[in-house]
């Protein structure tokens, strides 16, 4: 079943490649993956020495189980898995330890969720002003944009060219899925932050 985070989508592979290229900067970093699903980026970060917490929607038990299975399959039984729902300030969200990097692959999938995702990211960045949100997404429609929402939530983004971390290769970001599969990456931070 390729729905609800039970499939490794091309965006996850591209974000994992970015983490691998930057692996020397990961030991000791505190990383949270949101919308983790199969958790490829989070697993790579943990294997590279980061302190990782995986999360997916608390209402998606299959996704949370996928996170746990990925951890066990990769000999990472100590990695915590939390249910966090975008746009909802929950006790789990409030209790999160400090983070340096937030990961999200293909979380900008459905426009109805875009603001809830950015509300959660804004909350985390306000709590951790020097943190960054590293995200990859598939360009599905020229009409879908988060620009206005970034402005509304006082966030800024920097586009990271895929060629800068060797993720522009067909075998890496390519997909046998039908349709257009252009993958892009950006780093989002607080607009007033100098962390990028």
UniProtKB/TrEMBL annotation:
<keyword id="KW-0489">Methyltransferase</keyword>
<dbReference type="GO" id="GO:0005737">
    <property type="term" value="C:cytoplasm"/>
</dbReference>
<keyword id="KW-0949">S-adenosyl-L-methionine</keyword>
<dbReference type="InterPro" id="IPR019410">
    <property type="entry name" value="Methyltransf_16"/>
</dbReference>
<keyword id="KW-0963">Cytoplasm</keyword>
<comment type="similarity">
    <text>Belongs to the methyltransferase superfamily. METTL23 family.</text>
</comment>
<comment type="function">
    <text>Histone methyltransferase that dimethylates histone H3 at 'Arg-17', forming asymmetric dimethylarginine (H3R17me2a), leading to activate transcription via chromatin remodeling. Maternal factor involved in epigenetic chromatin reprogramming of the paternal genome in the zygote: mediates H3R17me2a, promoting histone H3.3 incorporation in the male pronucleus, leading to TET3 recruitment and subsequent DNA demethylation.</text>
</comment>
<dbReference type="GO" id="GO:0032259">
    <property type="term" value="P:methylation"/>
</dbReference>
<dbReference type="InterPro" id="IPR029063">
    <property type="entry name" value="SAM-dependent_MTases_sf"/>
</dbReference>
<keyword id="KW-0156">Chromatin regulator</keyword>
<dbReference type="GO" id="GO:0005634">
    <property type="term" value="C:nucleus"/>
</dbReference>
<dbReference type="GO" id="GO:0006325">
    <property type="term" value="P:chromatin organization"/>
</dbReference>
<keyword id="KW-0539">Nucleus</keyword>
<comment type="subunit">
    <text>Interacts with HSPA5, HSP90B1, TUBULIN, UGGT1 and UGGT2. Interacts with TET3. Interacts with STPG4.</text>
</comment>
<keyword id="KW-0217">Developmental protein</keyword>
<dbReference type="Pfam" id="PF10294">
    <property type="entry name" value="Methyltransf_16"/>
</dbReference>
<protein>
    <recommendedName>
        <fullName>Histone-arginine methyltransferase METTL23</fullName>
    </recommendedName>
</protein>
<keyword id="KW-0808">Transferase</keyword>
<dbReference type="GO" id="GO:0010468">
    <property type="term" value="P:regulation of gene expression"/>
</dbReference>
<dbReference type="GO" id="GO:0035242">
    <property type="term" value="F:protein-arginine omega-N asymmetric methyltransferase activity"/>
</dbReference>
